[in-house]
Specification:
The chain is an alpha/beta fold and 239 residues long. Helix content is 33%, strand content 25%. It is built from nine helices and ten strands. The radius of gyration is 18 Å and the shape is globular.
Amino acid sequence: MLEIQNLSVSYRGNLALQEINCNFAPGEMIGILGPNGAGKSTLIKAMLGLLPAMMGNTVWRGRPLKRQLNKVAYVPQRSQIDWDYPITAWNVVMMGRTIETGLFRRPSPESEALVKEALDRVGMYDLRHRGIGELSGGQQQRIFIARALAKQADLFLFDEPFVGVDQKTEEIMFDIFHDLKKQNKTLLIVNHDLQQTLHHFDRLVLLNRRLIAIGDRSTVITPENLARAYGVPLHLLAA
């Protein structure tokens, strides 16, 4: 069980998140929704200890999550990645094996096999020697999904993975996410789409600095909840 307990975050003098409480079970795919500035990315970063929490904790399997990051795969927003950095697609994915390999050591045959398998899974093995900056937006995102797979994590956190990707990449990602669910992994995915993709998620979390609603699609996506989160009626969001 993944538990977010009374989590509050102050960011640059502003209260970014206030008293967030929710639990997630193994085998769940969770969609995190809310307007810009609602605290979705802040939630992910605070859970991982990348931003300091003013109050509260994130506990996984009875222990602080930030002490178990070897079992967590995190894919940040594409805008946070330096795409001009001179590194090949293969080496980006191999970064998912850093903890097992150690710095400045040659990867084991097992790690190399896992990286190949991950690149095959996202359809990028043939482009493994390409510089990451030479790839399209969808191809770049697939490489970072492959890095997450190579880590063999149990908890996966994705921050807006569908932004700027093509339809084929989106389909590949959802196929992978459903496979991970079947393996009893837990997935938290920040998502902006309020329409077509929502049926993929087991539960939704609707935020606007506070927790507005949590539950299945019919429970969360209501005119009242969306008006509280976005400040506009449902028909304007669907337009």
